[in-house]
């Protein structure tokens, strides 16, 4: 703190010209403290407003990308499972399809609700899988890994009997493999507790379903 | 915000312009955008600026050099503060925009929800062919079966009665004038295919090349390359739903008009 700085000396109009150093210094001190307090208040208030936004993932975050893409990915699993649930005559298939449809539809609800909580749009104009490292080339016609083509979906809708069951299991196996791959990518790149928790349940749940699907496929193809 | 005790105001401001030709500039530059964004929030920057001009040029003192340290610190603090305030204001303005606001920003969009037209607002299920007040429709009574909207690309016209039910579920329905050049149709189907809560179909008697529908909203444009198409989809897809959680799968996948059955559920699957 200097005694002889003019900005401060100019401040109080009533200050007499030749003052001893101490009062000047005190004026300095008061000025600085007040300035610091005001600045501190402003910065603090701004941070307070910002922190809720800073603590949740942003619009271009990997979490938002994952939740949006996985919602779309899940929606197709629901679609295929509802078709199998309606058209299959195999109780094992009906049970599995109902289980997958209900689980994945509910998980879409979790994912959409988090986006909403974070104040983010449920969709984006980003291409699918843009959030995922090394995903180049994995998207064909906007379809993420494991997703069925429109032609495959049309075939599934028409199928009946054992043909339907085998088609459904085959499509679902590919679908789960793609989904597990995506879920593992977010587990590796996110530290959001909720998102990582849900992704881990997807990995474990779908991996155990994959084992069941493989077993059912082997049975059907032998029969 | 502006606690205008002379001390604090004068000091930072003096620092900013008068004394520091070097460090003073960044804060001054930084202050301007913030002042725009924050709408006068940064109380420290502006009022002080007036004071500066009035001040007579002080005699150059040797001792002035000694105050560089605190001046630099204050300049840095002010710069950071202004940056935080500016960013905060920007984030608040951008992040606070609802999807309705984003939709309203799209040039040429028509918000039919604002009209409070009962014929458009009705969510009733009715069988058989129905008439709609807009072409293509953006809402109103509809068939109990929705049109599958899992990124389906329909190459023939679909029934309004099913399509409106898809809008109710949160889909954006992209339509084009039947006979639109193949490259334009391809550009549209590239935006739609494989994306749930979207579907594409031609319309026989459309007055513009491309029309986009969400529940209660419509945008008509001349070209499939119009950037507003993506804006419309981003703002309204899923957001415009009247039934959160309702699916786009499990709907009708056939094209063509509804059958005039009294109970109105036309063929499904």
TrEMBL record, chain A:
<dbReference type="Pfam" id="PF03713">
    <property type="entry name" value="DUF305"/>
</dbReference>
<feature type="region of interest" description="Disordered">
    <location>
        <begin position="1"/>
        <end position="24"/>
    </location>
</feature>
<feature type="transmembrane region" description="Helical">
    <location>
        <begin position="30"/>
        <end position="51"/>
    </location>
</feature>
<keyword id="KW-1133">Transmembrane helix</keyword>
<keyword id="KW-0472">Membrane</keyword>
<dbReference type="InterPro" id="IPR005183">
    <property type="entry name" value="DUF305_CopM-like"/>
</dbReference>
<protein>
    <submittedName>
        <fullName>Uncharacterized protein (DUF305 family)</fullName>
    </submittedName>
</protein>
<dbReference type="InterPro" id="IPR012347">
    <property type="entry name" value="Ferritin-like"/>
</dbReference>
<keyword id="KW-0812">Transmembrane</keyword>
<feature type="domain" description="DUF305">
    <location>
        <begin position="63"/>
        <end position="217"/>
    </location>
</feature>
Automatic annotation (TrEMBL), chain B:
<dbReference type="InterPro" id="IPR021454">
    <property type="entry name" value="DUF3105"/>
</dbReference>
<feature type="transmembrane region" description="Helical">
    <location>
        <begin position="71"/>
        <end position="93"/>
    </location>
</feature>
<feature type="region of interest" description="Disordered">
    <location>
        <begin position="1"/>
        <end position="63"/>
    </location>
</feature>
<keyword id="KW-1133">Transmembrane helix</keyword>
<dbReference type="Pfam" id="PF11303">
    <property type="entry name" value="DUF3105"/>
</dbReference>
<keyword id="KW-0812">Transmembrane</keyword>
<feature type="compositionally biased region" description="Polar residues">
    <location>
        <begin position="250"/>
        <end position="269"/>
    </location>
</feature>
<protein>
    <submittedName>
        <fullName>Uncharacterized protein DUF3105</fullName>
    </submittedName>
</protein>
<feature type="compositionally biased region" description="Gly residues">
    <location>
        <begin position="37"/>
        <end position="48"/>
    </location>
</feature>
<feature type="compositionally biased region" description="Low complexity">
    <location>
        <begin position="24"/>
        <end position="36"/>
    </location>
</feature>
<feature type="region of interest" description="Disordered">
    <location>
        <begin position="245"/>
        <end position="269"/>
    </location>
</feature>
<keyword id="KW-0472">Membrane</keyword>
């Amino acid at each position: 703190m200097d005694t002889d700085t003019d900005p401060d000396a100019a401040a109080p109009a009533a200050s007499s010209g030749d003052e001893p150093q101490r009062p000047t210094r005190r004026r300095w001190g008061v000025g600085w403290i007040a300035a610091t307090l005001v600045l501190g208040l402003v910065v603090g208030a701004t941070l307070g407003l910002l922190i809720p936004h800073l603590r949740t993932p942003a619009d271009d975050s990997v979490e938002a990308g994952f939740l949006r893409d996985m919602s779309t990915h899940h929606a197709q699993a629901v679609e295929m499972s509802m078709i199998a649930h309606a058209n299959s005559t195999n109780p094992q298939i009906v049970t599995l399809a109902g289980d997958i449809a209900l689980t994945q539809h509910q998980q879409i609800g979790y994912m959409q609700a988090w986006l909403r909580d974070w104040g983010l749009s449920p969709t984006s104009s980003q291409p699918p899988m843009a959030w995922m490292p090394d995903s180049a080339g994995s998207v064909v016609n906007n379809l993420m890994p494991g997703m069925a083509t429109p032609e495959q979906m049309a075939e599934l809708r028409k199928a009946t009997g054992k043909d339907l069951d085998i088609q459904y299991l085959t499509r679902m196996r590919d679908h789960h493999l793609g989904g597990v791959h995506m879920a593992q990518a977010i587990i590796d790149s996110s530290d959001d507790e909720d998102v990582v928790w849900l992704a881990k349940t997807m990995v474990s749940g779908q991996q155990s379903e994959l084992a069941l699907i493989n077993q059912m496929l082997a049975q059907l193809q032998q029969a | 915000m502006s606690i205008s005790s002379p001390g604090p105001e004068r000091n930072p401001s003096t620092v900013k312009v008068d004394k520091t030709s070097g460090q003073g500039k960044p804060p001054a530059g930084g202050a301007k955008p913030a002042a725009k964004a924050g709408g006068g929030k940064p109380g420290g920057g502006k009022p002080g600026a007036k004071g500066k001009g009035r001040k007579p040029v002080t005699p150059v003192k040797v001792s002035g050099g000694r105050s560089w340290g605190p001046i630099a610190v204050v300049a840095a603090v002010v710069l950071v503060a202004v940056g935080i305030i500016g960013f905060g204001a920007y984030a608040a303005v951008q992040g606070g925009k609802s999807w309705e606001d984003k939709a309203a920003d799209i040039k040429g969009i028509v918000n039919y929800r604002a009209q409070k037209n009962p014929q458009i607002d009705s969510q009733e299920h009715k069988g058989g062919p129905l008439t709609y007040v807009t072409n293509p429709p953006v809402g109103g009574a509809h068939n109990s079966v929705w049109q599958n909207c899992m990124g389906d690309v329909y190459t023939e016209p679909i029934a309004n009665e099913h399509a409106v039910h898809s809008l109710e579920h949160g889909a954006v329905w992209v339509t084009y004038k039947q006979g639109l050049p193949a490259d334009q149709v391809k550009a549209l189907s590239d935006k739609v295919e494989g994306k749930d809560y979207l579907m594409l179909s031609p319309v026989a008697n459309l007055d513009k090349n491309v029309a986009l529908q969400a529940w209660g909203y419509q945008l008509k444009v001349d070209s499939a390359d119009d950037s507003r198409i993506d804006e419309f989809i981003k703002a309204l897809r899923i957001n415009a739903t009247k039934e959160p959680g309702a699916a786009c799968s499990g709907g009708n996948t056939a094209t063509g008009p509804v059958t005039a059955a009294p109970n109105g559920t036309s063929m499904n699957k």
